[in-house]
Design brief:
The protein has 168 residues and is of the alpha+beta class. The protein is built from seven helices and four strands.
Length: 168
């Protein structure tokens, strides 16, 4: 099943897995094609695990972030790295392995299970300070040290090309 099919399935496990797939997906064209169905996704997931999970992180947190990311991409709001502060599950080490950021400094405190990072996005250059904390597993608190960078609005030509691509 595709990510979109899983999001629309109504099956909590499939929705949860698809939400993490959206979190990790970087292909903007594919994200935009999924984002075209935000209203249908919201309707299909309206009652998915709303009140389960912990006080800090509910079971629908991945879904909430997936919807946030889809709206962000649909609105062409900027570089996807600007979403790091919205999700404590972005591990800077994994992001660096994927080539999405460069870690310029890392200070670990093994006694307290914490770490501090300084890093930068390889796509737009945004700089971040990241604090690793432990709470039933590692969480990462991202702080964007750069001012937000907005993408220029799509031109009419680009909108037309995107429209035609979706219809083919």
């Amino acid at each position: 099943m595709s990510i979109l099919e899983n999001l629309l399935s109504g099956d909590p496990q499939k929705v949860w897995e698809a939400s993490f797939d959206v979190k990790n997906l970087r292909d903007e064209e594919e994200l935009r094609s999924i984002a075209d169905h935000i209203q249908a996704i919201k309707k299909a997931t309206k009652n998915i695990d709303k009140d389960s999970g912990t006080d800090l992180i509910t079971n629908n947190s991945p879904l909430s972030f997936a919807l946030l990311k889809l709206k962000f991409v649909k609105d062409s709001a900027g570089c996807q790295c600007e979403l790091y502060p919205s999700n404590p599950f972005f591990n800077p080490n994994k992001e660096a392995e994927e080539g999405l950021i460069i870690i310029s400094d890392k200070v670990e405190d093994a006694k307290n299970w914490t770490a501090d990072y300084r890093c930068a996005c390889t796509k737009c250059g945004n700089k971040f300070k990241v604090k690793k904390v432990e709470y039933h597993g590692p969480l990462y608190v991202w702080t964007n040290l750069s001012p937000p960078k907005k993408k220029p609005p799509e031109t009419l030509v680009k909108k037309t090309i995107n429209y035609v691509r979706k219809r083919l």
